[in-house]
Amino acid sequence: MARKVALLLWGAQTTQLLVEPPWRPAVLWDQVTLTCQGSGTASATTWYKDMWRWGPKGPDHFTVTESGTYHCDRPGSGLSPPMTVSDDDLVLQVPVPALLEGDMVTLRCRGWWDKSVTSVSFYHDEKKVWELRDGTELSLSNLQLQHSGRYRCEGLVQSWFSVRSSVSSPVTVTVHELFSVPVLEGPPELTEGSPLTLICLSTPSLLRPQAPLLYVFYRDRQVVGGPQWSPQLLVPTVGISHSGNYSCQVRSEGVALRKSSSQLRVTVHMPVANATITPGPLSHQVRSGDPVTLRCSVQVGSAPVTFTWLHNGQEVARGPLLELRDIDVGHSGTYQCVATNQLGQDGHRVFRALSPELALTVTTGSPWVTAVAVNVGRTLLFLLLLLAVIGGCHWWHHRGAPQRRSRCWTLVSWAPSTQGMSTGSDRVTSPMGVASHLGPHNRCLSQGPHRCPPALPHLGIHK
Predict the structure, then answer these.
(1) Please, which pLDDT band fits residue 325 given cuts at 50, 70 and 90?
(2) How far apart are alpha carbons 226 and 251 in whole angstroms?
(3) Taking the CB of residue 428, how many other CB atoms lie within 10 A of it?
(4) For the whole model, what pTM was predicted?
(5) Please, which pLDDT band fits residue 27 given cuts at 50, 70 and 90?
(6) pLDDT of residue 431
(7) Residue 426 has what pLDDT?
(8) Would you place residue 200 in the very low, low, confident or very high pLDDT band (cuts 50, 70, 90)?
């Protein structure tokens, strides 16, 4: 007992020093019993007091008769934490069991050999937190981490002959986490139609590993799951409505203790769908030389969306607009656009939407030119027929058959092209304004029916 030893702390301390009654610091007048628990046999226990080896190796417990700070040692589990036995005038005591969030604790201020104490004040980290006129105990309920710290008490201690003010030694109070602040884990980006699994991770304290915990899940501050025993939230099939800010909350059953995670932003991406080309309809006719602009769009699809243009199945351009200037017949054909977006955290999922075909027909010339060409052709055909009639009349005129010349007038009058014509003494004007001179041998038109031949057999006209 005369030899002082150095107390070294090594490794994890698994040797425990138990005290009865279970208050710390213990007080000498409570008949304190210390018990050493650890590996090895009880006979291998070594005791230390005030950093000195105390007593012989031997029993694993004894009743304290002297104030001081005690340790015990076991060869296989090391040195125990210290335990102080006080004999001061004023002592602040706290319970020995570990304190966790949500617990209740009672601090008591005791005078020497249980002398009366009045006007007690309690201090937390040198700040007065409570003052009592009567009583010596302070109860703290629903402990939080901020209740940790150094506590002491002051009071008036009555002795046999006087009353004196005393201050206790400080006592460290440690409040441990019942469970850690939760962390919400899950994919920040999802594709529409895929499942969503969120996990609310929170670690229970090793001091109370079986503490029952409840989990609640929120989206944009609205409850979407729980309270439940499972730390997982499963959404089998997500849609755009499932996008939002998610968080989870962990609650301890029976204790008013709740902890919330940070928010996790979950975004649901939409594959492209329903690509269309404007302007419609599905067939489009334009004239050569006109400019044409086509636009490709999608009804749904998360950005970024890319567009590719196909002409008769071959890629010709990229971008939402296809501008064709000075088009010709080579631009005729079918046009389609392909809309594409890539989804997923690494863009490994590619989605495409193909628009319906648009048939583009390019015509040469204009409708006015076509109409003029048709009318000119009809006029030329009329003139050819008219010349044939006039030639027949001329032939009959030279044959000198008066009885047949009257038919010439009838034939010319029958021709349908005479409608809308103006006739003079020597010319006929067509509806297009083309004049045809009859000449001196073709004036049977104005000389009466007896001057024209009666029929034109070679033209298929008979009497």
Answers:
(1) confident
(2) 11
(3) 22
(4) 0.60
(5) very high
(6) 36
(7) 41
(8) very high
Top mean-pLDDT range of 37-41, 157-161, 203-207, 276-280: 203-207
Instruction: Decide the pairing of beta strands 321-324 and 358-363.
Output: unpaired
Under 8 Å CB-to-CB from 35, ≥6 apart: which residues? 17, 18, 19, 20, 60, 61
Quick: pLDDT tens for 406-429: 444 444 443 443 333 333 344 433
Instruction: Give CA separation, 56 vs 3, 6, 232, 263, in Å.
Output: 12, 17, 57, 60
Q: What is the 3-state secondary structure (H, E, C) of the chain?
A: CCCECCCCCCCCCCCEEEEECCEECEEHHHCCEEEEECCCCHHHEEEEECCEECCCCECCEEECCCCEEEEEEECCCEECCCEEEECCCEEEEEECCCEECCCCEEEEEEEHHHCCEEEEEEEECCEEEEEECCCCEEEECCCCHHHCEEEEEEEEEECCCCEEEEECCCEEECEECCECCCEEECCCEEECCCCEEEEEECCECCCCCCCCEEEEEEECCEEEEEEECCCEEEECCCCHHHCEEEEEEEEECCCCCEEECCCEEEEEECCCEEEEEECCCCEEEEECCCCEEEEEEEEECCCCCEEEEEECCEEEEECCEEEECCCCHHHCEEEEEEEEEEECCCCCEEEEEECCCEEEEEECCCHHHHHHHHHHHHHHHHHHHHHHHHHHHHHHHHHCCHHHHHHHHHHHHHCHHHCCCEECCCEEECCCCCEEECCHHHCHHHHCHHHCCCCEHHHCECC
Query: What residues are paired with 308 via a beta bridge?
Result: 318, 338
pLDDT band at 103 (very low <50, low <70, confident <90, very high): very high
pLDDT at 192: 82
One-letter identity of residue 439: G
pLDDT for 292 equals 87
